[in-house]
Design a protein that fits this description.
Length: 128
């Protein structure tokens, strides 16, 4: 496995983890901006810290080596979270210019996930 592919994979993963971590912290502390965003989308305030903690646990899961099944669940959770937030934003009337954050999120998670599987497959083949 080339070190270039590993570096690219970890770059996507670290950027995606930072992306999710930066959104989890305001949620965990129930920052007024996070609560206002949830209200705008029609969600109750009590959901804010729950989503924040879930994101934080997901970030830990994708950054810690090993635990492939937990990583799969974390990636699935992130896609569901991103898709739900995107759909909610569209339904709440957020203009298309506000969708760029979701596009960035999808690109980062796709790059991280594909690289994770490519690197994992290459490690498996090299040990066979």
């Amino acid at each position: 496995m080339s070190s270039k592919k590993v570096i690219i994979g970890w770059t996507f993963t670290v950027l995606f983890a930072a992306f999710m971590l930066m959104s989890s912290i305001p949620n965990i502390i129930s920052a007024p901006s996070a609560i206002a965003g949830f209200y705008h989308l029609g969600y109750p305030a009590y959901l804010v810290p729950f989503i924040g903690v879930a994101k934080l646990l997901g970030v830990i899961a994708i950054l810690v080596p090993g635990f492939p099944r937990i990583k799969e669940w974390a990636y699935a959770g992130f896609v569901i979270n991103l898709t739900g937030a995107f759909y909610s934003s569209v339904a709440a009337g957020v203009p298309a210019s506000g969708w760029i954050i979701f596009i960035i999120g999808y690109i980062l998670i796709a790059g991280s996930y594909v690289s994770y599987h490519r690197n994992r497959r290459n490690v498996s083949f090299s040990h066979a």
